[in-house]
């Protein structure tokens, strides 16, 4: 089940923590060099909320904590709390590069999945959904945690670069309904820190590299999924 697809387009991904001063400085450098994401609101931001899945053995969690280089994660993702765009995604990490596969699902399909009815994913003509359907039946892939944050994004066609600042990360703990209007959220990381992500294809242009000055930043060691899973830990092994 967990095999990276060698035919996909893989990209480099660098993650760092930045404090507000670093964020403000880097953002001011990037604005004249890059284009702000067209999907952002007037403040240049949009809300991302994801429901992450894992199997009965918590494979995604253990592989990340164990430093396994080739691994995958499954999630349902929405934007700005709306149900007009809902994607089921598979994020693949192979060595030091990443790729993403996604398929749209309807709100009705989402509601059935949340009820535990995975037959709505029994769609052989949609390979990703069909894969998730088999994972739900064979290794009991199930919802685990909600991850929620505000994203500010910049893009550049040269190098196909995408730089994002993810702010105010929260988690829904044991509630798995991303559309619940009464969803209680708790902070996942100190709001004094943001997550800077740098994604690019074959190369990162020198002028962007200079603007970022990544050498002085702290690398992010844990994924958003792991950070939020640890907040909702119920077993001692999750601290290992």
Description:
The chain has helices spanning 20-30, 59-65, 107-114, 127-138, 206-212, 224-231, and strands at 11-19, 35-36, 46-54, 71-79, 86-94, 97-104, 142-156, 161-171, 186-187, 193-200, 218-219. Residues 234-240 have low confidence and may be disordered. It has an eight-stranded antiparallel β-barrel, surrounded by five helices. It is 22% helix and 35% strand. The chain is of the alpha+beta class and 240 residues long. Strand 5 (86-94) and strand 6 (97-104) form a beta hairpin. The two termini are 25 Å apart. The chain contains six helices and eleven strands. The radius of gyration is 18 Å and the shape is globular.
SSE topology:
Layout (H helix, E strand, L loop, with lengths): L10 E9 H11 L4 E2 L9 E9 L4 H7 L5 E9 L6 E9 L2 E8 L2 H8 L12 H12 L3 E15 L4 E11 L14 E2 L5 E8 L5 H7 L5 E2 L4 H8 L9
* Computed structural class: alpha+beta
User: Helix amount, in percent?
Assistant: 10-25%
Strand order across the biggest sheet? Answer: 1-6-5-4-3-7-8-10
Sequence of secondary-structure elements: EHEEHEEEHHEEEEHEH
> How many DSSP helices?
6
Can you summarize the main beta sheet? 8 strands, antiparallel, barrel
Low confidence ranges: 234-240
Strand content: 35-45%
Quick one: how many beta strands? 11
- Rg, Å, rounded: 18 Å
Let me know the average pLDDT.
90
The oligomeric state is: single chain
Shape: globular
Distance between the termini: 25 Å
């Amino acid at each position: 089940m967990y095999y990276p697809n060698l035919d996909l387009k893989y990209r480099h991904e660098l993650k760092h923590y930045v404090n507000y001063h670093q964020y403000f400085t880097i953002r001011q450098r990037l604005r004249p060099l890059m284009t702000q994401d067209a999907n952002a609101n007037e403040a240049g931001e949009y809300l991302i909320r994801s429901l992450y899945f894992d199997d009965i053995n918590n494979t995604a969690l253990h592989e990340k904590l164990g430093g396994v280089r080739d691994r995958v994660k499954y999630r349902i993702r929405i934007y700005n709390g709306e149900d007009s765009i809902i994607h089921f995604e598979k994020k693949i990490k192979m060595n030091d590069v990443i790729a993403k596969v996604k398929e749209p699902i309807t709100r009705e399909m989402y509601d059935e999945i949340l009820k535990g009815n995975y037959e709505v994913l029994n769609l052989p003509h949609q390979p990703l959904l069909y894969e998730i359907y088999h994972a739900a039946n064979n290794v009991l892939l199930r919802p685990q945690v909600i991850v929620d944050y505000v994203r500010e994004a910049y893009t550049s066609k040269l190098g196909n670069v995408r730089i994002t600042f993810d702010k105010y990360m929260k988690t829904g703990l044991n509630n798995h309904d991303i559309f619940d209007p009464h969803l209680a959220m708790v902070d996942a990381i100190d709001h004094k820190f943001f997550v800077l992500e740098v994604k690019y294809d074959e190369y990162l242009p020198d002028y962007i590299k200079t603007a970022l000055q990544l050498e002085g930043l702290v690398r992010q060691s844990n994924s958003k999924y792991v950070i939020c899973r640890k907040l909702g830990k119920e077993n001692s092994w999750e601290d290992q």
